[in-house]
């Protein structure tokens, strides 16, 4: 038999199918080892045939075949073609998406537990063989037990003697490494009429893609769980995606309570062993629900009945490494292949998705009420310009302090949110204006008081705290901006008896880091949780009645067409953490631009007006989805190599423009806003196009212009333009 093999080298020069002879047990989807260019490397079998078109002496045999059950499900091959074609990556690179990395490198394998059982054969034991007699008695009584503890008790000599005499048999069972999950409210709920209506709408909807626009606390999770339960009953499987790793333990707790071992979790925060075991549980059919972050869209499930993407607007659903895919696009392909529904849910749908719904290409379910008619929290605007005039230099407005006082005295909890992106504590010399910057990256450093050092948030480099300005030798160094740490310090001064915890990239470490902090807060072992983006989404803490947003307008000042949308989403999501159960919730939103219309809509929870305004604006200014922003990045160690590649990219695209200038709204080459990251220089060609028609050519140009010294890649409507 002959196998068509894709070798696991993601390089355009070997991006084709190779043929090997193979043993008869080989199946399509198996991983194999093959000789290739004088080495033995891994490959994937994508097809089998009885005959080969090549001469017999030209065909080499595969070295070995792994996987009794093929690791790749048949659907992988159609997705592989789509992804390779759409994002212009080698087929091997798209196949890699379907396998956890530790499986490809062969680093992790199953772990087994040795067990021993009584065979029913009575051995003849001499009187002297006391240990054997005792061990046999215990084994006969239990019938079957773990091997190691038995040998510890009676000695391995005695136990092995029983095996030799045929009285006992050793066997192995697979041990699953199971990830931790949170406890929480896992009771099954009776659906409200709105929830039931949503489930029914989706099941009967003629649309492939259906959007649930439901305010925070409207019970979307319960809708998802019901759809999943229905699909399991039909014998099908389901994929359930959530945006943040920190959300998965809570979701998994609910799924485990409801579906037991049928739910498996997949994400990068797991240990390699855990991920390996969870992955095989899905592949073997033991588990039928894959839950996880973005990469779980590649779960090895067959016969999928529903794909759910919660918080669909979240930017983490876009991959920032090659292939730079959009999770919704992949999900749609899988839904088409399996003939199932794709369900997108959000309190603040992305403008793109909502347009699809309003223009009749997606089904739409709208939930305007919180469960039990609980009101959405009142949002109070604190005008920080007035605070400054009043002589309050603090990061906390008077309104926020008063509300905090009241919340704490009632024994409730508060969340303080800082939109730290681009607004952290930097060190400035007040004499000459020097700002401490990273040596490897073109960004300013952030002061960390706990370690008394400066850190770069892009590459992680650490620097000694400065005692004097390196530029003018002056000693008047000042911190500017607000970091989470500084806020915690201020809060502890103002509320000395409050228990405060902080959650950001610096306090979250290890694979259970998020989970531990959230658990601590959920168990009310802390009164105030201070954090960044990480705490904005999804969490359901019943005792939280106050949310403070310290710098609501920071993200408004990014020069990016999405900044308004992002600000609206952030405020709505963070506010949604307040008042979910007991007392009515409140939100204090601090801003320097209280008259801004985005903030006005957010305060009223007026998604519709926000949306209409946004659409009008984007249509008029020709921003996505009414155009396509295409950024071609050029990243290199050496400036001259980067510039050479940049020139090639620019002139190649300029040729397209010469033919069809009407499609180009904007076109130029420039330094990227951050000129250097990890000692690599960054340039870009930025194009805004009226249509998608030249996209494929631009991807091709990126591949052609990549050299050993310069990486060139395409980003479509990038979420982050730094
Ligand atoms: P969302 O995801 O829309 O923000 P959740 O799914 O977290 O909302 O639900 C909000 C709260 O309402 C949760 O505490 C949940 O347990 C509760 N809940 C949801 N559905 C019901 C129901 N049918 N009956 C009672 N409580 C419910
Ligand atoms: Zn750096």
List keywords for this structure.
six-stranded parallel β-sheet; about 30% helix; alpha/beta; about 725 residues; 21 helices; about 25% strand; binds zinc ion; binds adenosine-5'-diphosphate; seven-stranded parallel β-sheet
- Give the % helix: 25-40%
Low-confidence parts lasting 5 or more residues at pLDDT below 50? none
The unique ligands bound to this protein are: adenosine-5'-diphosphate, zinc ion
Our count of helices gives 21
Task: Specify the biggest β-sheet.
Answer: 7 strands, parallel
Mean pLDDT: 87
Number of strands: 30
Detailed description of the structure:
This protein is α/β, with parallel strands linked by helices. The mean pLDDT is 87. Helix content is 32%, strand content 24%. The strands form seven sheets. A seven-stranded parallel sheet has the order 11-12-10-13-14-9-15, with helices on both faces. It has 21 helices and 30 strands. The protein binds adenosine-5'-diphosphate and zinc ion (ZN). Zinc ion (ZN) is lined by residues 438, 440-441, 456, 458-459, 461.
Summarize the topology.
Elements: E1 2-7, E2 18-21, E3 31-36, E4 39-49, E5 64-65, H1 75-86, H2 91-96, H3 101-104, E6 111-118, H4 130-142, E7 144-146, H5 147-154, H6 156-164, E8 168-175, H7 193-204, E9 209-214, H8 220-233, E10 237-241, H9 248-259, E11 263-266, H10 272-283, E12 289-292, E13 304-310, H11 327-338, E14 341-346, H12 351-358, E15 363-367, E16 378-383, H13 384-389, H14 398-409, E17 413-417, E18 426-429, E19 446-448, E20 453-455, E21 462-464, E22 477-480, H15 484-494, E23 500-503, H16 513-522, E24 528-531, E25 544-549, H17 563-575, E26 586-591, H18 597-603, H19 607-621, E27 628-636, H20 639-659, E28 664-677, E29 680-689, H21 695-705, E30 710-716
Parallel strand pairs: 9-14, 9-15, 10-12, 10-13, 11-12, 13-14, 16-26, 17-24, 17-25, 23-24, 25-26
Antiparallel strand pairs: 1-2, 1-4, 3-4, 3-5, 6-7, 6-8, 18-22, 19-20, 20-21, 27-29, 27-30, 28-29
Bound molecules: adenosine-5'-diphosphate and zinc ion.
Residues 185, 189-192, 195, 214, 216-222, 371, 540, 580 line the site of adenosine-5'-diphosphate (ADP).
């Amino acid at each position: 038999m002959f196998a068509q093999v894709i070798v696991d080298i993601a390089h355009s020069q070997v991006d084709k199918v190779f043929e090997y002879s193979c043993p008869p047990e080989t199946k399509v989807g198996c991983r194999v080892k093959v000789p290739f260019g004088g080495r033995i490397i891994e490959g994937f079998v994508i097809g089998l045939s009885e005959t080969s078109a090549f001469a017999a002496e030209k065909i080499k045999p595969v070295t070995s075949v792994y996987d009794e059950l093929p690791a790749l499900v048949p659907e992988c091959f159609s997705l592989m073609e789509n992804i390779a074609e759409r994002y212009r990556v080698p087929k091997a690179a798209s196949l890699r998406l379907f396998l956890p990395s530790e499986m490809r490198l062969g680093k992790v394998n199953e772990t087994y537990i040795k067990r021993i059982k009584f065979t029913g054969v009575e051995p003849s034991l001499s009187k002297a063989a006391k240990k054997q007699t005792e061990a046999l008695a215990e084994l006969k009584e239990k019938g079957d037990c773990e091997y190691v503890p038995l040998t510890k008790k009676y000695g391995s000599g005695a136990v092995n003697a029983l095996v030799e005499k045929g009285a006992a048999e050793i066997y192995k069972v697979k041990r699953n490494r199971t990830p931790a999950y949170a406890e929480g409210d896992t009771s099954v709920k009776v659906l409200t009429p709105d929830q039931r209506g949503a489930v029914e709408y989706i099941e009967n909807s003629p649309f492939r893609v259906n959007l649930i626009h439901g305010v925070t606390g409207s019970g979307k999770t319960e809708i998802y769980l019901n759809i999943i339960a229905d699909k399991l009953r039909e014998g099908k499987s389901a994929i359930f995606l959530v945006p943040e790793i920190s959300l998965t333990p809570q979701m998994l707790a609910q799924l485990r309570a409801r579906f037991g071992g049928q739910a498996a979790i997949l994400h990068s925060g797991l240990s390699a062993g855990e991920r390996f075991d969870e992955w095989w549980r899905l592949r073997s059919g033991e588990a039928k629900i894959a839950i996880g972050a973005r990469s779980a869209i590649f779960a090895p499930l067959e016969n999928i009945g529903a794909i759910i993407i919660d918080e669909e607007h979240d930017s983490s659903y876009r991959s920032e490494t090659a292939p730079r895919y959009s999770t919704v696009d992949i999900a749609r392909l899988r839904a088409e292949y399996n003939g199932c529904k794709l369900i997108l849910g959000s309190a603040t749908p992305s403008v793109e998705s909502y347009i699809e719904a309003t223009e009749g290409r997606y089904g739409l379910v709208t939930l305007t009420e919180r469960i039990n008619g609980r009101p959405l929290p009142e949002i109070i605007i604190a005008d920080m310009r007035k605070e400054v005039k009043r002589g309050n230099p603090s990061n906390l407005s008077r309104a926020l302090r008063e509300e905090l006082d009241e919340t704490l005295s009632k024994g409730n909890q508060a969340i303080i949110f800082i939109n730290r992106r681009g607004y952290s504590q930097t060190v400035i010399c007040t004499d000459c204006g020097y700002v401490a910057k990273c040596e490897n990256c073109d960004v300013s450093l952030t002061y960390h008081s706990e370690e008394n050092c400066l850190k770069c948030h892009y590459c992680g480099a650490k620097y000694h705290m400065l005692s004097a300005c390196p530029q003018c030798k002056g000693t008047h160094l000042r911190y500017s901006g607000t970091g989470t740490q500084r806020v915690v310090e201020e809060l502890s001064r103002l509320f000395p008896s409050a228990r405060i915890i902080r959650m950001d990239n610096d306090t979250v470490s290890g694979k259970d880091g998020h989970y531990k902090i959230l658990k601590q807060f959920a168990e009310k072992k802390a009164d105030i949780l201070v954090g960044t983006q990480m705490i904005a989404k999804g969490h359901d803490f019943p005792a939280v009645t106050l949310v403070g947003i310290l710098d609501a307008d920071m993200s408004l000042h990014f020069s990016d067409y999405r900044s308004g949308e992002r600000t609206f989403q952030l405020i709505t999501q963070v506010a949604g953490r307040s008042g979910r159960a007991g007392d009515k919730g409140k939100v204090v939103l601090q801003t320097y631009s209280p008259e801004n219309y985005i903030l006005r809509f957010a305060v009223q929870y007026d998604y519709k007006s926000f949306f209409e305004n946004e659409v009008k604006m984007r249509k008029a200014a020709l921003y996505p989805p009414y155009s396509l922003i295409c950024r071609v990045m050029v990243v290199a160690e050496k400036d001259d190599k980067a510039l050479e590649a940049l020139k090639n990219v620019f002139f190649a695209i300029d040729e397209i423009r010469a033919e069809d200038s009407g499609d180009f709204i904007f076109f130029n080459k420039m330094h990227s806003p951050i000129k250097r990251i990890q000692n690599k220089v960054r340039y870009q060609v930025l194009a805004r196009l009226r249509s998608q028609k030249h996209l494929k050519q631009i991807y091709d140009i990126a591949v052609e212009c990549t050299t050993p010294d310069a990486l060139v890649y395409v980003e479509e409507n990038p979420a982050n333009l730094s």
